[in-house]
Design brief:
The protein has 2 domains: 46 residues; 213 residues, Orthogonal Bundle (MetI-like fold), CATH 1.10.3720. 68% of the residues lie in helices and 0% in strands. It contains 15 helices and no strands. It starts with 7 loop residues before the first helix and ends in a 7-residue tail after the last helix.
Length: 320
């Protein structure tokens, strides 16, 4: 007697037929549930990402060229002869190049003194404003005291007042403090920077509270916490504000023009405006001095561009 061995697969199918259910579909040969995407789909995504990158880069290049064209025109105007500054203004490439404008600028004007005054004002403003703004931001962000939020809102509300409305009160204050025609008279009103306080406060709010609690448990004072804990953690934000503060003070014209009376105390911006006289404007010297005024800011940005971008990218996150 021979016993035939039944196929388990057929028995399973017969059982499903008896109870009225469809047999489960057998997986196809070589198919997997976690099969990776098809190759052409990957190529399609790569091509789409590459097209987006090319489009974004093209737009940024066009925007960069649009911003660089005025500086290029300024540079070639400074290199043209004095009598050809406006005669050749429509030509993209200069027909003749000379350094006589730079020679005349250094011989006829105290441009080095103006440059030194601008450096003093910029450095003094950055150092003083960074110290005041960072300390005030730490107090408003991490210390609990009455009317903390009301004080912060009041500081931000002060930004709604145009600076032109504050000129007369500030000028009277500088007269009473005997700070007219001094560097301190220009620096002092720039130390209370509302935007810098807002920016730094939002950055410090993103810092972990556990670090401050641990420092207080170890017996550290608030001043020690500020200088040894807060300052090292907010360096990207400080670099960003340093560029902003120095750029504002370097290009400021109205307030130094009001405070400064003697030519030897002029900053570079005020000195350039003095070249435009009532009867004759030395546009060749104006263009040349403007080139000298632009170069330090460009160098500062290129040296600190990584910190500047990191500070803006980590705004409100505390560097996380």
């Amino acid at each position: 007697m021979s016993i035939e061995r039944e196929n388990p697969g057929s028995m399973t199918a017969e059982r499903h037929d008896r109870i009225g259910l469809a047999a489960p579909a057998e997986p196809e040969h070589g198919s997997r549930a976690d099969e990776p995407p098809l190759r052409h789909d990957r190529w399609h995504r790569l091509l789409s990402a590459r097209r987006k990158k090319i489009l974004t880069t093209s737009i940024l290049v066009v925007v960069a060229i649009a911003f660089l064209i005025p500086f290029y025109w300024l540079l070639i105007s400074a290199l043209r002869p004095a009598n050809r500054v406006f005669a050749d203004a429509g030509q993209f490439f200069p027909t003749s190049i000379t350094l006589s404008n730079f020679q005349a600028l250094f011989q006829e004007t105290p441009v080095l003194v103006w440059f030194a005054n601008s450096m003093i004002l910029a450095v003094g403003t950055v150092v003083g404003a960074m110290l005041i703004v960072t300390m005030a931001a730490y107090a408003l962000a991490k210390l609990n005291f009455p009317f903390r939020n009301a004080i912060f809102v009041g500081v931000l509300a002060s930004q709604m007042l145009p600076f032109h409305l504050l000129i007369i009160p500030l000028f009277i204050l500088m007269i009473n403090l005997s700070l007219i025609d001094t560097h301190l008279g220009v620096i002092l009103p720039a130390l209370a920077h509302a935007f810098g306080l807002f920016y730094m406060r939002q950055y410090i709010l993103g810092l972990p509270q556990d670090v401050f609690d641990a420092a207080r448990v170890d017996g550290a004072s608030e001043y020690r916490i500020f200088f040894q804990v807060v300052v090292p953690m907010v360096k990207p934000a400080m670099a960003t504000l340093a560029i902003i503060f120095s750029l504002e003070q370097w290009n400021d014209l109205l307030w130094p023009l009001i405070v400064m009376r003697s030519e030897e105390n002029y900053p570079l911006a005020v000195g350039i405006t003095s070249l435009v006289g009532l009867y004759r404007a030395r546009w060749d010297l104006v263009m040349t001095a403007s080139v000298i005024a632009v170069v330090p800011i460009m160098i500062l940005f290129f040296l600190m561009r990584k910190q500047f971008i990191n500070g803006l990218g980590q705004f409100g996150t505390g560097g996380r």
